[in-house]
């Protein structure tokens, strides 16, 4: 839930720097990121993949959509893992951070021709194909650039992973990929084989997000492997790669049990080995794309309390509303997915009795709620600091300018030093787009 260098219990601190000092230097709201924790998490997924699959380990592609900025792209380059991008924008940031194009994988269900051309021309390692149109577009771009582009086909293995509907992506009624069950995957395979400028390396599936058990990953692997066998039976050659996507869940609130990298990778390795043996296939190179599981726990959001208000409910109970200086523009997940978070008083401790509290933002919208119900110290007052942990994934990356609120900065902390890696937006930034 908290990153490894955060201490709670008294005044909250990270790598020895107090919440108060951070608020004084960088103001609030701010995303505070634990750099060492980010690096350690990325490395532990890489190690887990390697130790579970040995020579059959493919690549850990960090899913940029969870959070990316140029500095984080530099860390990815340093660590030596790959990166999954799904737009030209994410590709540009990855390249700006110096990530080797061969270690970039391009996703997206509607990549523009310009995005495809850019990706092919810089030499991205893999393009994951998502529609029949795209097969022709990527083949044409590869021909135009005189390259043979490596591709995977994105497949929907028909699994309802246990997660929120809008972040589940591999059951049948979705916009992503080619369905195995309906035969569209097979038509895509045949279409790819008509082009000599693209080389089909294997299959990809991403079954959902914030998944806390390994069962769905095992079923996904089983179905993709059955299709690898069908391919071998039809064409007499084995495809060498499978990418099983991301989706590994993290600990947001008490009760969530994070899926440890070694546990997840061992379970997937057992499933892959078993099903390859069933079909007498050699084990393909296995890649994964964790986003949330790498970056989620590495950040907390630091807010300042602006107002406290007591509201009497219909049943006569009291609810305390605490308003902080951010809200749905820096964390849309509670409103969009009913995602749960927790919060702590960050600038001091309190022995005041706990009160049932709703934590809300500053937006002009009733649904601007960060935490529906939480017990917080009854003496919390304007000027206090609150910290919400595990906001690293899909917080800053899904932030908006709703109400022309300025998006918060990202402050990286390491070895007792804090620095801005994404600066706070300014009114000049807002006005700069207007003609
Ligand atoms: N690979 C592909 C192809 C994906 O579509 C995604 C996420 C990932 C990897 C990374 O998934 P992760 O390991 O981070 O769960 N905005 C939502 C999550 C949407 C994820 C979309 N795709 C949220 O805030 O929960």
TrEMBL record:
GO-annotated molecular function: diaminopimelate decarboxylase activity
Orn/DAP/Arg decarboxylase 2 N-terminal domain location: 37-296
Pfam families the UniProt entry points to: Orn_Arg_deC_N, Orn_DAP_Arg_deC
GO biological process entries: lysine biosynthetic process via diaminopimelate
UniProt key word Transport: no
Domain Orn/DAP/Arg decarboxylase 2 C-terminal: start-end pairs: 301-392
InterPro entries, sorted: Ala_racemase/Decarboxylase_C, DAP_deCOOHase_LysA, De-COase2_C, De-COase2_CS, De-COase2_N, De-COase2_pyr-phos_BS, Orn/DAP/Arg_de-COase, PLP-binding_barrel
Required cofactor(s): pyridoxal 5'-phosphate
Keyword vocabulary terms for this entry: Decarboxylase, Lyase, Pyridoxal phosphate
Name of protein: Unannotated protein
Source organism: freshwater metagenome
Organism taxonomic ancestry: unclassified sequences, metagenomes, ecological metagenomes
């Amino acid at each position: 839930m908290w990153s490894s260098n955060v201490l709670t219990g008294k005044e909250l601190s990270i790598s020895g720097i107090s919440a108060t000092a951070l608020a004084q230097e960088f103001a609030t709201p701010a995303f505070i990121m634990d750099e060492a924790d980010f690096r350690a998490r990325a490395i532990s997924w890489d190690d887990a993949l390697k130790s579970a699959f040995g020579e059959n380990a493919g690549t850990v592609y960090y899913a940029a959509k969870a959070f990316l900025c140029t500095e984080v792209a530099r860390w990815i380059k340093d660590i030596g893992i790959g990166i999954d991008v799904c737009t030209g924008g994410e590709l540009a940031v990855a390249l700006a951070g110096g990530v080797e194009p061969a270690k970039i994988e391009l996703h997206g269900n509607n990549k523009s021709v310009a995005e495809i051309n850019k990706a092919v021309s810089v030499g991205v390692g893999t393009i994951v194909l998502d529609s029949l149109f795209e097969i022709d577009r990527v083949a044409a771009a590869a021909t135009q650039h005189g390259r043979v582009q490596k591709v995977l086909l994105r497949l929907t293995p028909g699994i309802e992973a246990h997660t929120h509907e809008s972040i589940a992506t591999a059951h049948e009624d979705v916009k992503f990929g080619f369905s195995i069950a309906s035969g569209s995957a097979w038509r895509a395979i045949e279409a790819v084989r008509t082009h000599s400028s693209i080389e089909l390396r294997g299959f990809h599936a991403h079954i959902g997000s914030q998944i806390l058990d390994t069962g769905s990953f095992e079923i996904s692997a089983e179905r993709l492997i059955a299709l690898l066998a069908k391919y071998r039976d039809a064409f007499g050659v084995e495809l060498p790669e499978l990418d099983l996507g991301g989706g590994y869940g993290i600990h947001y609130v008490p009760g969530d049990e994070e899926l440890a990298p070694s546990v997840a990778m061992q379970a997937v390795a057992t499933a892959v080995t078993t099903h390859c043996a069933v079909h007498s296939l050699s084990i393909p190179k296995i890649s994964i794309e964790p986003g949330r599981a790498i970056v989620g726990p590495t950040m907390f959001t630091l807010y300042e309390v602006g107002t406290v208000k007591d509201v009497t409910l219909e049943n006569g109970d009291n609810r305390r509303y605490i308003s902080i200086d951010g809200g749905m523009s820096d964390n849309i997940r509670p409103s969009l997915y009913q995602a749960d978070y927790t919060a702590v008083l960050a600038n001091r401790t309190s022995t005041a009795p706990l009160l049932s509290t709703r934590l809300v933002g500053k937006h002009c919208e009733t649904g601007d709620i960060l935490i529906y119900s939480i017990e917080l110290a009854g003496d919390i007052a304007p000027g206090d600091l609150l910290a919400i942990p595990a906001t690293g994934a899909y917080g800053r990356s899904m932030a908006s300018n709703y109400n022309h609120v300025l998006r918060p900065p990202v402050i990286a902390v390491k070895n007792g030093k804090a620095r801005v890696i994404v600066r706070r937006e300014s009114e000049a930034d807002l006005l700069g787009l207007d003609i």
